[in-house]
Design goal:
2 domains, Dna Topoisomerase Vi A Subunit, Chain: A, domain 2, binds zinc ion, 202 residues
Length: 202
Protein backbone atom coordinates (compact mmCIF):
# COMPACT_ATOMS: atom_id res chain seq x y z
CA UNK A 1 0.00 0.00 0.00
CA UNK A 2 1.35 3.49 -0.84
CA UNK A 3 2.74 5.40 2.13
CA UNK A 4 0.34 8.37 1.54
CA UNK A 5 -2.70 6.09 1.69
CA UNK A 6 -1.41 4.41 4.86
CA UNK A 7 -0.97 7.82 6.50
CA UNK A 8 -4.48 8.91 5.47
CA UNK A 9 -5.98 5.70 6.92
CA UNK A 10 -4.06 6.35 10.13
CA UNK A 11 -5.38 9.99 10.35
CA UNK A 12 -8.96 8.85 9.82
CA UNK A 13 -8.66 5.97 12.30
CA UNK A 14 -7.87 8.48 15.06
CA UNK A 15 -11.32 10.08 14.72
CA UNK A 16 -13.70 9.02 17.52
CA UNK A 17 -15.77 5.91 16.84
CA UNK A 18 -13.85 4.92 13.69
CA UNK A 19 -11.86 1.70 13.65
CA UNK A 20 -9.18 0.57 11.18
CA UNK A 21 -11.68 -1.08 8.77
CA UNK A 22 -13.95 1.90 8.53
CA UNK A 23 -10.95 4.21 8.19
CA UNK A 24 -9.75 2.16 5.21
CA UNK A 25 -13.18 2.38 3.53
CA UNK A 26 -13.32 6.16 4.09
CA UNK A 27 -9.78 6.60 2.77
CA UNK A 28 -10.80 4.79 -0.45
CA UNK A 29 -13.88 7.01 -0.67
CA UNK A 30 -11.61 10.08 -0.50
CA UNK A 31 -9.22 8.59 -3.03
CA UNK A 32 -12.09 8.31 -5.51
CA UNK A 33 -13.90 11.54 -4.57
CA UNK A 34 -14.14 14.44 -7.01
CA UNK A 35 -11.56 17.23 -6.93
CA UNK A 36 -13.96 20.04 -5.84
CA UNK A 37 -15.21 18.06 -2.87
CA UNK A 38 -11.64 17.28 -1.82
CA UNK A 39 -10.58 20.91 -2.21
CA UNK A 40 -13.47 22.12 -0.04
CA UNK A 41 -12.86 19.37 2.54
CA UNK A 42 -9.13 20.15 2.71
CA UNK A 43 -9.76 23.90 3.17
CA UNK A 44 -12.29 23.32 5.95
CA UNK A 45 -9.92 21.04 7.85
CA UNK A 46 -7.01 23.44 7.51
CA UNK A 47 -9.01 26.53 8.57
CA UNK A 48 -11.30 25.13 11.28
CA UNK A 49 -9.08 26.30 14.18
CA UNK A 50 -8.34 29.66 12.65
CA UNK A 51 -11.95 30.45 11.71
CA UNK A 52 -13.53 29.58 15.05
CA UNK A 53 -13.10 30.97 18.54
CA UNK A 54 -14.77 30.93 21.94
CA UNK A 55 -17.56 33.43 22.70
CA UNK A 56 -16.24 35.80 25.37
CA UNK A 57 -19.61 35.82 27.14
CA UNK A 58 -21.03 32.28 27.12
CA UNK A 59 -17.99 30.17 26.06
CA UNK A 60 -19.78 28.56 23.14
CA UNK A 61 -17.89 28.10 19.88
CA UNK A 62 -18.33 31.04 17.54
CA UNK A 63 -16.94 32.51 14.30
CA UNK A 64 -13.46 33.90 14.89
CA UNK A 65 -14.47 37.34 13.56
CA UNK A 66 -17.07 37.90 16.30
CA UNK A 67 -16.32 38.63 19.93
CA UNK A 68 -19.59 37.13 21.12
CA UNK A 69 -21.70 34.44 19.47
CA UNK A 70 -24.87 34.95 17.44
CA UNK A 71 -27.07 33.85 20.38
CA UNK A 72 -25.48 36.31 22.84
CA UNK A 73 -25.73 39.05 20.20
CA UNK A 74 -29.39 38.41 19.41
CA UNK A 75 -31.42 41.19 21.06
CA UNK A 76 -34.61 39.14 20.64
CA UNK A 77 -33.37 36.51 23.11
CA UNK A 78 -34.32 36.76 26.76
CA UNK A 79 -31.14 37.91 28.53
CA UNK A 80 -32.66 37.23 31.96
CA UNK A 81 -32.39 33.46 31.40
CA UNK A 82 -29.08 31.57 31.29
CA UNK A 83 -29.12 27.86 30.63
CA UNK A 84 -25.97 26.26 32.07
CA UNK A 85 -24.74 23.26 30.09
CA UNK A 86 -21.82 20.90 30.48
CA UNK A 87 -20.85 20.73 26.81
CA UNK A 88 -21.31 22.83 23.68
CA UNK A 89 -23.02 19.83 22.09
CA UNK A 90 -25.72 19.99 24.80
CA UNK A 91 -26.34 23.60 23.87
CA UNK A 92 -26.71 22.68 20.19
CA UNK A 93 -29.14 19.90 21.09
CA UNK A 94 -31.29 22.23 23.22
CA UNK A 95 -31.17 24.87 20.50
CA UNK A 96 -32.30 22.51 17.77
CA UNK A 97 -35.14 21.21 19.99
CA UNK A 98 -36.49 24.78 19.88
CA UNK A 99 -38.70 26.55 22.39
CA UNK A 100 -35.91 28.05 24.51
CA UNK A 101 -35.29 31.75 23.89
CA UNK A 102 -32.81 32.62 26.64
CA UNK A 103 -29.00 32.60 26.67
CA UNK A 104 -26.51 29.86 27.56
CA UNK A 105 -23.32 29.28 29.46
CA UNK A 106 -21.02 26.39 28.54
CA UNK A 107 -18.86 25.03 31.38
CA UNK A 108 -16.89 22.63 29.18
CA UNK A 109 -17.10 19.72 31.59
CA UNK A 110 -18.25 18.75 35.05
CA UNK A 111 -16.30 18.39 38.29
CA UNK A 112 -14.79 14.89 38.41
CA UNK A 113 -11.92 14.35 40.88
CA UNK A 114 -11.54 10.75 39.58
CA UNK A 115 -10.65 12.17 36.16
CA UNK A 116 -8.64 15.07 37.60
CA UNK A 117 -11.22 17.66 36.59
CA UNK A 118 -11.58 20.28 39.32
CA UNK A 119 -13.50 23.54 39.79
CA UNK A 120 -10.59 25.56 38.36
CA UNK A 121 -10.71 23.58 35.10
CA UNK A 122 -14.27 24.71 34.30
CA UNK A 123 -15.53 28.11 33.15
CA UNK A 124 -17.35 29.21 36.29
CA UNK A 125 -15.69 32.59 36.84
CA UNK A 126 -17.16 34.15 33.70
CA UNK A 127 -20.59 32.92 34.74
CA UNK A 128 -20.30 34.57 38.17
CA UNK A 129 -19.14 37.75 36.42
CA UNK A 130 -22.24 37.65 34.26
CA UNK A 131 -24.43 37.32 37.36
CA UNK A 132 -22.58 40.03 39.27
CA UNK A 133 -22.77 42.52 36.41
CA UNK A 134 -26.45 41.92 35.64
CA UNK A 135 -28.88 44.71 36.52
CA UNK A 136 -31.85 42.38 36.56
CA UNK A 137 -32.62 39.15 38.40
CA UNK A 138 -31.54 36.13 36.33
CA UNK A 139 -33.00 32.69 36.01
CA UNK A 140 -30.21 30.11 35.88
CA UNK A 141 -31.42 26.90 34.35
CA UNK A 142 -29.12 24.03 35.27
CA UNK A 143 -29.42 21.66 32.31
CA UNK A 144 -28.11 18.55 34.00
CA UNK A 145 -26.95 15.19 32.83
CA UNK A 146 -27.91 12.77 35.59
CA UNK A 147 -24.48 11.60 36.72
CA UNK A 148 -22.38 12.04 39.87
CA UNK A 149 -19.98 14.49 38.22
CA UNK A 150 -22.74 16.83 37.29
CA UNK A 151 -24.38 16.49 40.71
CA UNK A 152 -21.06 17.64 42.24
CA UNK A 153 -20.82 20.52 39.75
CA UNK A 154 -24.36 21.59 40.39
CA UNK A 155 -23.92 21.42 44.21
CA UNK A 156 -20.72 23.50 44.00
CA UNK A 157 -22.53 26.08 41.91
CA UNK A 158 -25.44 26.42 44.34
CA UNK A 159 -23.07 26.75 47.34
CA UNK A 160 -20.92 29.31 45.53
CA UNK A 161 -23.97 31.47 44.77
CA UNK A 162 -24.71 31.51 48.54
CA UNK A 163 -21.06 32.24 49.41
CA UNK A 164 -20.80 35.12 46.97
CA UNK A 165 -24.08 36.52 48.29
CA UNK A 166 -25.68 36.40 44.88
CA UNK A 167 -28.79 34.52 45.92
CA UNK A 168 -31.02 37.61 45.65
CA UNK A 169 -29.87 38.07 42.04
CA UNK A 170 -30.80 34.62 40.79
CA UNK A 171 -33.53 32.05 40.64
CA UNK A 172 -32.03 28.59 40.10
CA UNK A 173 -34.06 25.99 38.25
CA UNK A 174 -33.23 22.63 36.71
CA UNK A 175 -34.70 20.57 33.91
CA UNK A 176 -37.45 18.19 34.96
CA UNK A 177 -36.37 14.55 35.10
CA UNK A 178 -38.36 13.47 32.09
CA UNK A 179 -35.59 12.70 29.61
CA UNK A 180 -35.99 9.12 28.40
CA UNK A 181 -32.27 8.42 27.95
CA UNK A 182 -31.32 10.73 30.81
CA UNK A 183 -28.72 12.57 28.75
CA UNK A 184 -29.44 15.80 26.87
CA UNK A 185 -27.27 14.70 23.94
CA UNK A 186 -29.45 11.61 23.31
CA UNK A 187 -32.82 13.04 24.30
CA UNK A 188 -35.59 13.41 21.75
CA UNK A 189 -36.98 16.83 20.90
CA UNK A 190 -40.36 16.37 22.64
CA UNK A 191 -38.77 15.31 25.96
CA UNK A 192 -36.29 18.19 25.83
CA UNK A 193 -38.96 20.77 25.18
CA UNK A 194 -41.12 19.47 28.03
CA UNK A 195 -38.11 19.08 30.39
CA UNK A 196 -37.41 22.77 29.79
CA UNK A 197 -41.02 23.83 30.08
CA UNK A 198 -41.56 21.85 33.29
CA UNK A 199 -38.31 22.95 34.95
CA UNK A 200 -38.36 23.17 38.71
CA UNK A 201 -36.87 25.66 41.13
CA UNK A 202 -33.94 24.21 43.12
ZN1 LIG B 1 -22.22 33.51 23.42
Amino acid sequence: MPEALKRLIHNISLLPGIGENRATKLAFFLLNANENYLKDFRENIVSIKEKTDICTSCWAITDAWRKTCSICDDSKRDSTQICIVEEYLDMLTLESAGGYTGLYHVLWGAISPINWVFVGDLHFSKLFERIESSDTKLELIIATNPNLEWEATSAFFTEEIEKRKLKHKVKITRLSRGLSSGYIEYADTMSLVSALKERKEV
